[in-house]
Write a structure and sequence with these properties.
single chain, mainly alpha, 2 helices, transmembrane helix, transmembrane, membrane
Length: about 110
């Protein structure tokens, strides 16, 4: 004969069988975790973007300084060439005032 056990009303405490309230709570917890991870990813992404922008700004400033240095060098070269040109013209006027034009032609175009 089979033994009869008395019926005992038990509350469903096992987590393996979800209740509607537990489903809702876990759903909210999951959404909250997803939102928090999304925010942390956004913050990390923003920090990385800020680092890249700072690096690009520094590179831009260095490039502008290099361009300024190049322009300064070109200005000095232009002034030096202008000075050489003025010296040549001065020497040419001295030669033409002291000697004949034929002598200048043989001096410069020979």
């Amino acid at each position: 004969m089979a033994s009869k056990r008395p019926f005992v009303f038990r509350r469903n405490s096992s987590r393996s069988t979800p209740t509607p309230f537990r489903d809702l709570a876990s759903s909210f917890a999951t959404r909250r975790e997803i939102f928090r991870s999304f925010l942390s990813l956004q913050q990390g992404w923003a920090q990385q973007l800020l680092k890249h922008v700072q690096t690009l700004f520094v590179l831009l400033v260095l490039l502008l300084l290099l361009l300024l240095l190049l322009l300064l060098w070109l200005l000095l070269l232009w002034l030096w060439l202008l000075l050489k040109h003025v010296q040549t013209l001065f020497l040419l006027t001295q030669v033409t005032s002291n000697h004949s034009l034929k002598h200048v032609q043989t001096l410069f175009f020979a």
